[in-house]
């Protein structure tokens, strides 16, 4: 029977890194001393702007490309300020381990001469954080347009990911979307440490953190490198006979406001259209690997409601999911009309504009996808 990652998007935010130091030089909560993560230089250098123009290919256009690349890494806490130059290696403070007890500059950072990508690695044995960031429009080494790829040799924890409790600003952002703070807390939603407001959605399996997806308030997304290809909210369907699948973490939270805790979200975007090819084998079905990785959870469900987005890619996603899960146990949601111009697009839109009761009714009136299915008779 048929069964039933996200690539990162462009980032344009620029946080700054703060390191608190005790009087004896060790890290601590005394004296909030701002340590700018600047590039180390031993040779004499020309003025900053002149040097950066000189070493970035493309003149002023190259400088814009360089600044965009720097903004991507600054979002992760790597703060080059205005001293980084393409083609040079720099010793910076690692935002993950903060240089350890000695607060040493353990992060080797390098922007290639062409300004197509930056790479870094922390050489502290206890850390090992490494990664790459790619300029807008530049492909990564494995052929995709990922903005950031990071990895670490340490076990993934909230501390290693620099997660912290939600700020009032982000709580207010969710409140505008009718999602309560209690719901955020139950799902472990946090934010990335730093000045920039970056929401973090933890991916867990049996209570264990197996990944994290990030979202800025202006809808830019990326995943922590090493994130398991799995459904978001997986533990909520561990014993469910009926489940709901949505297209986004915020939609999963919205479903909970309507009373559907037995809901999961796909971790990545929707296809442009339904494929006309035969289904690949599970080991080659890369775009939907998250389904196969959660097969033991999904096999328990006798009824699966697909509440993907109402646009063309969302509808294509519903069809592709049904092909793998088996149409005989799939139902599809039809989002209500918004106005004469069209319908609501997803669960959060319905929750925000019509309320939780209306959202619940939409789910309860989902239609069977199998043409041979008929509702059981009351006779």
From TrEMBL:
InterPro entries: TOPRIM_DnaG/twinkle (IPR034154), TOPRIM_dom (IPR006171), Twinkle-like (IPR027032)
Pfam families: Toprim_4
Domain of life: Eukaryota
GO molecular function, one term: single-stranded DNA binding
Signal peptide: none
Toprim domain span: 241-330
Protein name: Primase homolog protein isoform X2
Organism encoding this protein: Rhodamnia argentea
């Amino acid at each position: 029977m048929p069964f039933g990652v996200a690539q990162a998007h462009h980032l344009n935010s620029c946080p700054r890194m703060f390191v608190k130091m005790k009087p004896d030089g060790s890290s601590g909560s005394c004296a909030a001393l701002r340590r700018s993560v600047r590039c180390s230089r031993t040779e004499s250098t020309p003025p900053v702007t002149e040097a950066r123009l000189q070493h970035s290919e493309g003149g002023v256009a190259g400088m814009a490309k360089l600044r965009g690349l720097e903004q991507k890494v600054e979002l992760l806490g790597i703060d080059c300020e205005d001293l980084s130059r393409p083609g040079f290696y720099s010793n910076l403070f690692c935002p993950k381990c903060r240089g350890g007890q000695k607060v040493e500059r353990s992060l080797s950072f390098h922007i290639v001469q062409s300004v197509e990508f930056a790479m870094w690695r922390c050489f502290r044995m206890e850390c090992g954080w490494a990664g790459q960031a790619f300029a807008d429009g530049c492909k990564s080494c494995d052929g995709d347009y990922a903005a950031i790829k990071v990895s670490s040799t340490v076990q993934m924890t909230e501390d290693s990911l620099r997660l912290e409790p939600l700020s009032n600003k982000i709580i207010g952002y969710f409140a505008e979307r009718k999602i309560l703070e209690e719901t955020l807390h139950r799902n472990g939603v946090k934010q990335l440490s730093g000045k920039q407001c970056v929401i973090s959605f933890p991916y867990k399996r049996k209570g264990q953190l197996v990944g994290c997806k990030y979202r800025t308030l202006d809808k830019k997304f990326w995943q922590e490198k090493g994130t398991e290809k799995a459904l978001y909210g997986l533990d909520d369907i561990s014993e469910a006979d009926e489940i709901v699948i949505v297209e986004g973490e915020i939609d999963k939270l919205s479903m909970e406001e309507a009373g559907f805790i037995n809901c999961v979200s796909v971790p990545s975007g929707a296809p442009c259209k339904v494929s006309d090819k035969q289904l690949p084998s599970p080991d080659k079905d890369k775009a939907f690997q998250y389904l196969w990785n959660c097969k033991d959870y999904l096999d328990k469900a006798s009824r699966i409601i697909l509440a993907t987005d109402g646009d063309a890619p969302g509808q294509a996603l519903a069809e592709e999911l049904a092909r793998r899960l088996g149409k005989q146990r799939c139902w599809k949601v039809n989002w209500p009309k918004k106005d004469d111009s069209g319908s609501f697009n997803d669960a959060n839109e319905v929750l925000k504009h019509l309320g939780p009761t209306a959202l619940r009714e939409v789910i309860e009136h989902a239609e069977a996808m199998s043409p041979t299915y008929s509702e059981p008779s009351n006779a």
